[in-house]
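Re: beginner question about structure tokens

> Can someone show what the tokenized structure looks like for a real chain? I only ever see the sequence side.

Sure, here's an example I had lying around. Input first:
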Amino acid sequence: MTLLHSPAYTPPPAPTRHDSFVGVLAQPERHLLPDGELLVFQFSNGYGAALSHRDGFCVLDCTFQAPQPTFETPVASEVLTGLDLAALTRLLIETESLPRHPRLVEADEALLQETF
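And the corresponding structure tokens:
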């Protein structure tokens, strides 16, 4: 293989239903489960979301090492099921638009008090 004789380009597979969350900046981590796929989004504001065909939509607190479900946001106070693509996209955008998580705000304030 040389620059003049590189391998043929193979385009990536066509987007699946979950690749078309228009307006959502983060890309999900994909986890294969015995009964489907789990998509885990992590946003820079300290929140995230978990999506699966079986269990629905759940907001995540991503300030822990392993993201944990949280029901203390205005986006969703429970696991939401039976949602279509438009509703899922709207919920993801709302979650991504939440104000910075209070734990991150506390950490930022503590860092501002440090002398470097």
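Each token stands for a local structural state, so reading them left to right follows the chain. DSSP finds two helices and five strands in the chain.
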